[in-house]
Design goal:
With 440 residues, the protein is α+β, with helices and mostly antiparallel strands. 32% of the residues lie in helices and 25% in strands. It contains 11 helices and 21 strands. It has helices at 2-19, 31-48, 52-71, 83-90, 108-113, 128-139, 162-167, 216-225, 250-259, 282-289, 408-430, and strands at residues 97-100, 170-175, 184-190, 193-198, 205-208, 211-214, 226-228, 234-236, 239-244, 262-267, 272-277, 294-298, 323-326, 336-341, 349-355, 359-366, 371-375, 378-380, 383-385, 389-394, 397-405. The chain has a 5-stranded antiparallel beta sheet with strand order 14-15-21-17-18, with no helix packed on it. A 4-stranded mixed beta sheet has the order 1-2-4-3.
Amino acid sequence: LGVALVPGALVIVASAAALSRPAHPAPLWPWLPLVCAGGLGLAAGLSARGSAPVALAIGLAVVALDVTAFATGATSPVPVVPAATVGAWLGPPVSGRALSTCEGRVGAGELALNGQPALDGLAGIHLQGYAEWAYVARYGLAPPGDGQFHGLDSDGTLPVRRDLIDSANVSLVVSCEPLEQPGLTLLSRTDGLFVYRNDRAWPRAIWSCGYNLRSRASVTSRLVGSRYDAARSLRLEAWIQVRWSPEVEAGRRQEVEDRHGLDLGVQAEDGTWTYAARDRTEANLLALVEEPAVEDTSGIDRATGRLLSPPVQPSAGVEPGNELLVGGSDCDVTGSAQVREQDGPNGAVVVDVTAPVEGYVFLSEPYYPERRALVDGQQADTIEADLAFVAVPVPAGRHQVELRYVPVSFRAGLALSVITLLVWLAARARRPVDFSPVRH
């Protein structure tokens, strides 16, 4: 037991380090590491006094507490819908990820059952960066840093930031209601489920030279205040909200949008849409306010037609850092990135790249340290991009970029377990532990 306390203490230290990060629920910190460390200390003291059975029971209780606390929220019911039924709903899987606004019927589990990669993971298992990015995408606001899971599947509406959804290679959208969104093509309607193809989805990998390295706070701020345009450049926009009259039909709404330069529309609630105002002249915005089809507006001074929150130009002195902002700078040349392998059981992504100048390959794949990159078979750096994804620098020319999963922590844990077992066996061989009751 004394030998086992050493790796046990290391586990507690690792738990404390992990729990102190905002990716984990705050209630676990700091009581879980303190309780577990105290329990191990008590077990060590009892073992030294000869109370091995009690010490063993306390040690097992500490392990059970640690595992249970970390497993909370990390379990999910197995989909009970037959695979054939899910296949009839969704059709064959497509290249790209899927997002559901009908989570009560179709979520990540059902998508996995159909062989379709999903945007969200199962059961709230997530990476810190993805949770922050998902909050920006869903609400259009800076992440609160509350340590909670934030996903994008929902029961009702699409996320506010459609451009970020597009950048994450979301090629399929499932809904329980018809969606009136530009760029969505209805593929099927079965048993009250609507399946759409997203014609605006980015490929899984793109090449670009329009990037710069910033601090994480700077990347977050720019993502919140900007939008990706059709050229995949991140543009600062002036945003307004329009609440349409209930009787206005989609065709009439689109005609008014085109006439007044309203772009990148995202539907919220109660007939309210958020738009980028392309035509920011006071005459145009006053005319929009007076449109019979418009019930109310937000972000426009109704007396003068001026924007209440004009776009703020980025400062010249960007806070430097080691995070990449995709499309943050202009790139006047065009390269290509052709994905050859993706979504396999080994987690590998292989991309053929043609780069006219030095740049990077942005992959809408989750970033974490155990994902390693190779360029032409040689190990290369990976950069965290847009809070949650991966970018790989590449020189000019034709290259093959590969992203692999290398389970370093698993191998280290396995080695530690084997070493602990061998030490315990050696110690037991020298002085076997007698757990029989002591007779007086």
